[in-house]
Structure to design on (217 residues):
C-alpha cells in the first residue's frame, strides 16, 4: 500500500504555501493521497477568524483540481480541541498497517513538544517536515534527540513500514503565511497571488475576512 499523507491545520485561509509543500512531499514520498484536515478548535493557537464551514469550503475549492488531495472534515465533525494524536489514532485504526505520513512545517515542528501526547505521534505515523531555507531544526532536548534517532534521508524507506521515521524536505520555497493573508484581507487588500483564484473569489464574494471600515487597496 502506498503511504497516506495527513496535512492538518487551521487553513485560515489555505494558501499557495500549504499547497506547494503538500504537493512537493506527495511527489517525493509517492503518496497515494493527502488528507487536508482543517482543525475545529486548535488548542495551541488563537481561534480562527473564519468559521469552520468557511475554512472547509476554502480547502475544497483550493484542492479541487488535484486528484491526490482530499478534503477531510473529521476534526470539524468531532468538535472540541483538535488533537492530532486523536486523529492519527482513528486513521491508524482505519488504515491498519498502511504507512501514514503526518506533514508538518518547520514552525510546527519547533513547537511540537507542547502538543498533546506528542511522543506518540511518530509511533502512529511517519513525520514529513517541510523546511524552509534558513530555518534551523531543533537540535537540543527531546525534539533534537527524536530527530537524530528517527531521521531518514531515503524517501523510499517510509513506504516500507507503517510509522516511526522523520523525513525532512529542505527548500520548500514559497514564503507565504496565513497570517499575512489574513492581515491583507482584514485591511481590505486583495489577496491575489497568495492563494488559488477560487479561494480568493470565495473570500471576496462572501466577505469572509471583511472588517468594518476596511477599504480595498
Amino acid at each position: 500500500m502506498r503511504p497516506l499523507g495527513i496535512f492538518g491545520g487551521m487553513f485560515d485561509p489555505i494558501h499557495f504555501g500549504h499547497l506547494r509543500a503538500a504537493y512537493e512531499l506527495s511527489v517525493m514520498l509517492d503518496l497515494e493521497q493527502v488528507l487536508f484536515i482543517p482543525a475545529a478548535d486548535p488548542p495551541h493557537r488563537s481561534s480562527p477568524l473564519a468559521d469552520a464551514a468557511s475554512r472547509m469550503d476554502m480547502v475544497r475549492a483550493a484542492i479541487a483540481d488535484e486528484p491526490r488531495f482530499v478534503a477531510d472534515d473529521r476534526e470539524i465533525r468531532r468538535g472540541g480541541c483538535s488533537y492530532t494524536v486523536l486523529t492519527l489514532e482513528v486513521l491508524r485504526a482505519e488504515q491498519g498497517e498502511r504507512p501514514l505520513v503526518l506533514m508538518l512545517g518547520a514552525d510546527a515542528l519547533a513547537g511540537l513538544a507542547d502538543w498533546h501526547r506528542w511522543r506518540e505521534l511518530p509511533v502512529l505515523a511517519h513525520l514529513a517536515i517541510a523546511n524552509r531555507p534558513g530555518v534551523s531544526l531543533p537540535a537540543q532536548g527531546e525534539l533534537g534527540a527524536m530527530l537524530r534517532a528517527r531521521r531518514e534521508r531515503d524517501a523510499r524507506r517510509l513506504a516500507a513500514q507503517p510509522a516511526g521515521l522523520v523525513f525532512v524536505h529542505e527548500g520548500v520555497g514559497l514564503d507565504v503565511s496565513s497570517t499575512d493573508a489574513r492581515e491583507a484581507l482584514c485591511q481590505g487588500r486583495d489577496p491575489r497571488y497568495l492563494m488559488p483564484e477560487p479561494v480568493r473569489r470565495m473570500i471576496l464574494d462572501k466577505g469572509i475576512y471583511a472588517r468594518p471600515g476596511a477599504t480595498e487597496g
Q: What stands out?
A: The chain is about 35% helix and 15% strand. The first helix runs from residue 16 to 28. The domain at 4-174 is CATH 3.40.50.620 (Rossmann fold). The chain has a mean pLDDT of 92.
